[in-house]
Design a protein that fits this description.
Blueprint lengths: L6 E7 L2 E9 L24 E2 L6 E2 L6 E6 L2 E5 L1 H7 L7 E8 L8 E9 L4 H14 L1 E9 L2 E10 L2 E7 L20 H14 L12 H14 L19 H17 L15
Parallel strand pairs: 1-7
Antiparallel strand pairs: 1-2, 2-8, 3-4, 5-6, 7-9, 8-11, 9-10, 10-11
């Protein structure tokens, strides 16, 4: 099943215009949620808006939106005025510069979307993708939507583009707020750490190797409860490690990895051949 685009836009840089379609790149995990029920009869409860001044339940039709410009003072906006605030400043993605891909720290990335060519934009789209790939560049641009100006980075990815929404500078906390280590690693420690990393190193990141083990465990327990079973607390499988001696911990880790490598692989029986009937 082909993906469904959520919007159309145009990438512009210089006098070049590239019509594109925007697609969601990720989907949130189907989380396990619990509902609030009335203890008396087990009926699901509804949330209501209650005025703290008189205790009345306020229907949605009587709700207004206001901006608090001073303590307890609000500027009230009508639906028409809210639409004015939501008007897009630009319908397109205007590229303002190209930067080395490695120069954008990962902490600036927020959400990611796929971009594909729109009608009539195949050649220009392919050209932009290849130019970014060959030069290992990101295209930095801006566009406005839903009352906010978005800073974005365009990255080539398997013949398409990734559009990363970036945090603005004032949205990223300075790293100086976080204490840095006051000691430096010793050469012997660094050597052992490199050896351990080499044992754990993979050629590429393969997300399919990982699963949400916590969600899987909770799902199994819920199924057990639904089937009428009793829930029993399970001891956590990852106790917090207590590092006593860094060198000893590194040596022990390497020794454990060495043991795993020495173990011969399990022999599997060949499947029986079926006779032609």
């Amino acid at each position: 099943m082909s993906a469904r685009s959520t919007a159309s836009s145009t990438i512009t840089f210089g006098l070049v215009a590239v019509p594109v379609r925007v697609f969601p790149a990720t989907r949130e995990s189907a989380g396990l949620s619990f509902h609030l029920l009335h203890a008396k009869d087990g009926v699901r409860l509804r949330q209501q808006l209650i005025c703290p001044k008189d205790g009345e339940v306020v229907p949605r039709s009587d709700v207004l939106k206001g901006y608090e410009h001073a303590k307890g003072e609000y500027a009230i906006f009508t639906e028409k005025e809210l639409k004015v605030l939501d008007q897009k400043a630009s319908p397109g993605i205007e590229v303002t510069e190209f930067v080395d891909a490695a120069s954008v720290a990962a902490l600036h990335f927020d959400r990611t979307f796929y971009l594909g060519p729109d009608k009539g934009g195949d050649r220009a789209f392919a050209l932009l993708v290849e130019a970014l790939r060959e030069e290992d560049l990101l295209a930095i641009g801006q566009y406005a939507a839903r009352g906010k100006d978005y800073l974005v980075a365009l990255r080539p990815y398997e013949g398409r583009l990734l559009m990363h929404q970036l945090f603005h500078a004032d949205e990223v906390r300075p790293v100086a707020e976080v204490p840095a280590p006051e000691s430096e690693p010793k050469p012997a420690e660094l050597k052992l750490a490199r050896e351990l990393i080499s044992h754990l190193r993979s050629d590429r990141f393969a997300p399919e190797r990982y699963e949400d083990v916590v969600r899987k465990r909770i799902r199994a327990l819920i199924d057990q409860k639904v089937a009428g079973g009793d829930l029993k607390a399970v001891e956590e499988g990852h106790p917090r490690a207590k590092v006593v001696d860094l060198m000893e911990a590194l040596k022990a880790s390497l020794a454990e990895k060495g043991k795993k490598k020495e173990r011969p692989p399990e022999r599997r029986r060949a499947p029986a051949l079926r006779k032609a009937g």
